[in-house]
Amino acid sequence: MLFNSLIFLIFAFLFFTLLPFVNKLKNNFRWLFFTIASFIFYGWWDWRFLFLIIGSGLIDFFAGILITKKQKYKTLFLILSLIGNLGSLAAFKYSSFFAENFSLLLSHFGIIIDLKSKIPEFMLILPVGISFYTFQSMSYTIDIYRGRLQPTKNILQFFSYLAMFPQLVAGPIVRARDLLPQLTKIKKVSKVENWNGLKLILIGFFKKVVLADNIAPLVNYAFNDSNTAHSTIFWWIAIIGFAFQIYFDFSGYSDIARGLAKWMGFHFRINFNHPYISSSIKEFWTRWHISLSTWFRDYVYIPLGGSRKGKFRSHLNMWITMVVSGFWHGAAWTFVIWGALHAFFLSLERIFKIPVKLQKIPGGKILALILLLFQVMIAWVFFRAESF
């Protein structure tokens, strides 16, 4: 069920019509209502894949409790939780990628085998939102392991958090320590908050339906056209078009999610903060898909050592984080290259202190913006390309 579909409008109308009455009930009934509604929202796409989010949720719900109760074995329970989450993500999102590349590798040794054909057809379908709810579920158990979060012992409250429908399909990735406390309180939504929520929803729909969806055919024509003999201007228009398409698409979904959350009495943090006015790649990543970039910072970059173990390790940790981030976006080498390019640009900024130097010269801010846009656009080419 997508936000820009008729069935979602019917779903949302029924949900928000019932919500004031449900909010008068005890928390267990509210959480049951949220959980059932979110499962209907997700299951409308394909009911078969509900078992994935339920299975992932059950693993982490019990892992969270056991990590707290059995301190001696807490590392084991965390590892089991991570294996369960990453295993399902790898099986459904990356099995085809690994099968194709391993078959290609074997062919160089004269072994011809189509490993992809051995994968069950069911597993070749990418479940909607699996990358988002997997990361959201993983952050729950990791935060409990680190002592930053107490586990909920109510499974309905947990699934209300994990499967909350506004952010389930395309983010933002909401942390348990942000949303779980909000779920325990019944907040009366003021007229101002309702209006602010409506503004976010309308802006989000405008970005998604009017802008992104109308730019998409032009971009698709350029990138899917087998005739590559186009002018330089044509390709720059296509690249710039895709840059705005993906921004309006992602940020539009996030705005709608935040607006719906406001109507429910919850607060989701801003996820896109005008990234294309940044003066450096580093600043870009503080403004672009903020919930995802901070997730990689907190759960990948910092655990690897961050910038605490010298310049070389700092660069290496950053490269690993960005390449993994690229692979998270899609199971193809083009996404890996996209992540690696951002790592390369970040390394150049750190080594040569480019943003600082540009700020010291006349017109430096404009030059910094132009450089940032050029770097981001070049990287977007690989993100959008089907192959290279």
Provide the succession of SSEs: HHHHHHHHHHHHHHHH
The whole-angstrom Rg is 22 Å
Q: Could you say how many structural domains there are in total? A: 3
Question: What's the helical proportion of residues?
Answer: over 70%
Overall pLDDT level: 93
**Structural class computed from helices and strand pairing:** mainly alpha
Biggest sheet, open or closed, and with what strands and sense? none
In total, the number of strands is 0
Strand content: under 5%
Low-confidence stretches: none
Shape: globular
Oligomerization status of the protein chains: single chain
Number of helices: 16
Overview of the structural elements:
- The structure is a single chain.
- The protein has helices at 6-22, 27-43, 50-69, 74-107, 130-145, 155-162, 165-168, 176-183, 191-224, 232-264, 281-287, 290-304, 310-329, 333-352, 354-359, 364-384.
- By secondary structure, it is an all-alpha fold.
- It folds into three domains: 6-183, no CATH class; 191-264; 275-384, no CATH class.
- The chain starts with 5 loop residues before the first helix and ends with a helix.
